[in-house]
């Protein structure tokens, strides 16, 4: 299984402990993440003073996906707090400081099987994207320049999720893009 594995010169990080997201209905979230995706619920608790709940699901490899449910939490706003569409289907930008999507690593040999399995469970999935360095950064076919294969879907609250598998090892040539700064952003249109 190909996965990036590079030493960190500053901290002995062991991956992601957990990512904490916010849901509107904890029972529906448990049904989806444990029932549909098969992720075991490993910790659940009520927050102090009736503020809400916090649940943790095992995402494999020692990593967890956690959810808060807040009694007084505001609703999300598509296009602001999450993308309006799945990548490969429509506009997938989201606001600064939001989480655009959460990708789960899956074995390359199970990729197509898992896509069909989600569809059979009634989950709407986007097209297979073979990510490469071409102009549109995706190819309809698998070729030697493809570095990751993926497809996207959403949870019941519209959180964009991805199943992805690395299929090419990275080299220094993969890190030559110069980082943009805040001054490179286009001005926002007035509302």
TrEMBL record:
Alphabetical keyword list? Aromatic hydrocarbons catabolism, Dioxygenase, Iron, Metal-binding, Oxidoreductase
Which parts of the chain span the membrane according to its record?
A: none
Xref: PROSITE patterns: EXTRADIOL_DIOXYGENAS (PS00082), VOC (PS51819)
GO MF term set? dioxygenase activity; ferrous iron binding
List residues of the VOC domain. Answer: 15-166
| Metal-binding in keyword set | yes
Which Pfam families does this entry report, sorted A to Z?
Glyoxalase (PF00903)
Q: Which cofactor does it need?
A: Fe(2+)
Quote the Gene3D superfamilies the UniProt record gives.
2,3-Dihydroxybiphenyl 1,2-Dioxygenase, domain 1 (3.10.180.10)
- Report the superkingdom from the record: Bacteria
The keyword Metal-binding appears for this protein: yes
Q: May I ask which residue range the UniProt record assigns to the signal sequence?
A: none
User: Which protein family is named in the record?
Assistant: Belongs to the extradiol ring-cleavage dioxygenase family.
Protein name stated in the entry: Glyoxalase
Q: Which organism is it from?
A: Mycolicibacterium diernhoferi
């Amino acid at each position: 299984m190909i996965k990036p594995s590079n030493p960190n010169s500053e901290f002995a990080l062991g991956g992601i402990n957990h990512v904490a997201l916010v849901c509107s209905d904890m029972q529906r979230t448990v049904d989806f993440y444990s029932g549909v995706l098969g992720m075991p619920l490993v910790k659940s608790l009520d927050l102090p003073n009736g503020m809400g709940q916090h649940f943790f699901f095992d995402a494999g490899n020692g990593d967890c996906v956690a959810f808060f449910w807040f009694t007084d939490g505001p609703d999300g706003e598509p296009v602001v707090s999450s993308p309006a569409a799945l990548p490969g289907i429509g506009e997938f930008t989201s606001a600064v400081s939001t989480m655009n999507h959460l990708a789960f690593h899956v074995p390359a040999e199970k990729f197509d099987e898992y896509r069909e399995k989600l569809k059979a469970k009634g989950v709407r999935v986007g097209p297979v994207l073979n990510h490469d360095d071409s102009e549109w950064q995706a190819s309809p076919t698998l070729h030697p320049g493809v570095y990751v294969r993926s497809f996207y879907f959403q949870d019941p609250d519209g959180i964009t999720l991805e199943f992805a598998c690395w299929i090419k090892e990275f080299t220094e040539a993969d890190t030559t893009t110069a980082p943009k700064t805040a001054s490179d952003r286009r001005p926002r249109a007035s509302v």
